Amino acid sequence: MKFSIATLGLAASAALAANPLFKDIQNVLGGDFSKKLGNVADKLADGARKTTADSANWLYTATNKAQFPNYALRAKDPSSLGLDKVKQYSGYLDVEDEDKHFFYWFFESRNDPKNDPIVLWLNGGPGCSSLTGLFFELGPASIGEDLKPIHNPHSWNSNASVIFLDQPVNVGYSYSSGSVSDTVSAGRDVYAFLSLFFQQFPEYNKGQEFHIAGESYAGHYIPVFASEIQSHDDRGFNLTSILIGNGLTDPLRQYDEYEPMACGKGGAPPVLDEPTCENMRDSQARCNGLINACYNTESVWTCLPAATYCNNAMLGPYQATGLNVYDIRKECDSGTSLCYKDLEYIDKYLNQPEVMEAVGAQVSEYEGCNFDINRNFQFAGDWMKPYYTAVPALLEEGIPTLIYAGDKDFICNWLGNKRWTDELEWFGKEKYEPKELSDWVVDGKKAGQVKNYKHFTFLRVYEAGHMVPYDQPKNSLEMLNSWLAKDYSYGSK
């Protein structure tokens, strides 16, 4: 069965073994590593996008020359597409001196936009569009086979206004003549976007709370982006909380849980035979040693070998089964190179000229995931870096943090996310770590398990894969609403 693992991005590096570039890196742990890395880097595309002339009829173009002298924000009204009846804006944050242009799409709350919170949603990859989150998971509409919008009654804008942002550059509708290859650089751009957005639309910054949510590689992004926001004493908006779903945040502990998840210890039947499981266990010590070296130096010379070896040793055996890495219960949809056929409908919809015109898209083609960006982050050593270390400071500053995980995901499974949250060194660890999981109940039914102390929460979501809102739309909205209402314990003791 053909399986394009680049579909949603995070698993893309596991597919390097099937990529021609892998011939250059498969022996990267031996020989003249620096020479080999240089050869690979020379072959990487910069991810630059073909663009179209700017013929859009923009409603606004905003600037802040004092604080952001080289930034501007463009906005259109895309409501003619009929995705929702609420007020909407779409457009670009332009970084003129660096030729970077970030696409966003904003939807007001269906409830009380003057008072409801604002949520920034980020998909992962790295290199995958947040419009996947919009249309496939938690936005006001999905896209059917006939390329028509389908109303989503469980949209996350039911009680919050939501911003979907395509970042880093050259992802989705975003574009640039250059590229970004690390999480820290991406964070500076996101801070500038938010500052200009709230300046242009002050009606959404009049005491409303602001949250950042995302999934997958956003487990890297969000701690760094939140730290970037908190580092600015003169910021014009305040961060209320962060939410990370099935994220990659602490690779050292999360990669330790691939063998247990694949071999029947995560609540799902084993999908690998015992000899394969034993081989994975035998590879674990070397993988851990390489990740530790990356953690100690945060250098491409240690972090790239860790990603190369560990992805092949710990992800490769599962990938070889042909099962869906985002849902251990399923094979990929037949007849398509993508695991979810609905993603093809989204790509087709967003490539329609009338849609691109309505939202102000300035690219010649929309792609759900840009594999060049994924490789660039990988070869910059970003994949294995210990971005989880930003979380304790955020908790110390009083930023509530939710780590949630669908328990049928393999690639960022619940075992790994529970493991790193249990072992995180923070001021509440002594009280948090020994706690047992409690039932999370929705409408009288067990919907998952929760563990909480103060404003730090881990939530296991039953019968959901990597994309929790896709598999459990009603329960995921309940999860969000409870969090926004500051029920950080979800009823646990």
TrEMBL record:
GO cellular component: fungal-type vacuole lumen
Keyword Chaperone: no
Primary location recorded for the protein, binned into one broad class: other
The reaction(s) this protein catalyses: Release of a C-terminal amino acid with broad specificity
Ranges in coiled-coil conformation: none
Keywords: Carboxypeptidase, Disulfide bond, Glycoprotein, Hydrolase, Protease, Signal, Vacuole
PROSITE patterns hit by this protein: CARBOXYPEPT_SER_SER
Enzyme class, first EC level, given as a word: hydrolase
Gene Ontology biological process: cellular response to nitrogen starvation; phytochelatin biosynthetic process; zymogen activation
EC number(s) stated in the UniProt entry for this protein: 3.4.16.-
Protein location: Vacuole
A GO term, aspect molecular function: serine-type carboxypeptidase activity
Signal peptide: 1-17
Family listed: Belongs to the peptidase S10 family.
PANTHER family per the UniProt record, alphabetical: SERINE CARBOXYPEPTIDASE CTSA-4.1 (PTHR11802:SF113), SERINE PROTEASE FAMILY S10 SERINE CARBOXYPEPTIDASE (PTHR11802)
Protein name (database record): Carboxypeptidase
UniProt organism field: Yarrowia lipolytica
